[in-house]
Amino acid sequence: MTTTAPVDDPTASPAGGPVEGAEQARHVPHRWRNLATLTGVTVVDSTEAGLTTTLFPTISAALRLNTGQLGMLAALGKLVAVPFGPGWVWLAGRTSRRTALIAATVAGGVFGIIAGFANDFTHLLIANTLMAACIIGAGPISNSIISDSFDDAHRGRAVGYFYGISALLGSFIGPLVAQLSGFSDGWRYGMWAIGAICILAGLGILVFYREPGIGAAERQLADLSSKDRRGQKVTFASVLSLFKIPTFSIMMASRLLSGHLLIAVFGVQFLVTERGFTNAVAALVLLPFGVGYFAGTVGGGWIVTLLDRVLPRRGRVAFIQCAQILFAVIAFFGTQFHYSEIGVYAVFWALMGFAQGLNPGVNRPIVMSVVLPELRGQAFAIFLTVFETIGWALFSLGAGVLAESLGIQTVFLWILVGLMLVNAVVLSALYVTYPKDRARVTDELEERRAAALS
Prior knowledge:
Elements: H1 18-26, H2 31-54, H3 56-63, H4 67-79, H5 81-94, H6 97-115, H7 121-135, H8 138-149, H9 152-178, H10 186-208, H11 226-230, H12 236-240, H13 246-256, H14 262-273, H15 279-282, H16 286-310, H17 315-335, H18 342-357, H19 360-370, H20 376-406, H21 408-426, H22 430-453
Helix pairs in contact: 2-7, 2-8, 2-9, 2-10, 4-7, 4-20, 5-6, 5-8, 5-20, 6-7, 6-8, 6-10, 8-20, 9-16, 9-19, 13-20, 14-21, 16-18, 17-18, 17-21, 20-21
Organism: Microlunatus ginsengisoli
Membrane topology: Multi-pass membrane protein
Subcellular location: Cell membrane
């Protein structure tokens, strides 16, 4: 007789069969409610993180700042994530993922409110950096929860909904907040409002989130007890061993080459300083960018699911390569030519949003499928808060300095176009490593199941 105990019940019997385990993995309890709750947190967190960038032309006028200081704000706001991202994941392991999410979100909201009181660059820099140190924790923890809530066949779609919906809602909030730039000290009210909403989102986690349990969405582990699912205790050595996974190392290198991240930092500033639009008008491109990003993430998640059926071993690799090339082509025509109407730029921003949105629905599932369940939180901390952060910070700081002498348009040519094509070439190595690394994880989970049932 097979067990009918919930997958997150630590007393669950390990006697269930593979059919029951696969069925439980496909139907982890509360997975859609958790996804909706995490998406709500991501909306306010990402909006608060991007608020300084969106309103920077107005902030720079009020506090007499320059483009180089925008780069410094963005760079330090990302660099601080390098120690704090893994730190939040460590806290989640020592307490719970719910506790860590609430602490990160509420603290981020508090520092966002403090940033609204800034009267000089130093005050703004400190508050903005501390805000970023807090809200960065939501990303890796949320991705690890998604990997434990949805099986491999459905993770692309779940990640697509997660990033797509949050970006779509954020794209409405961004232009709305930008309209405050027309009022005296309007940027302060924007930061105060988003900070308060961020705190409320933390309370939403407290009320609606339910822990799925490590490995709950793996067919080999779903019907086992929590103890049998967890595997070895996570140590510093086991985290470092992630870099022995060839696919993981290639994906980390790819994050350092992800030049498309720069459009979020300098996109509005580019349209203001080099195309002559006002802050409020330039910020209008955030809406079509968000709509395009939504279409890319959601549509991309469905495409990845289809490719898994047609090309199960290498379909994801071909897809992520095409995403890099597509973005480079669109960025070239969207940033290297002058257009008089904001509507034309809105179209290109929508297309760039679409191309950029294709990435989360494939790169997150790739990482999830080559890393053991208990190490996915740490893997995403490295992926999202270390390598992506270092790349983003270097792009932001370097572009901010170079833009002062070369102009943002030239910087965009080298980073949004040239570097993205290089990234596509680097990802070619996945055709060799990805099938092997994915098979290795499957074999290890099968061995874990066999040991638990013996």
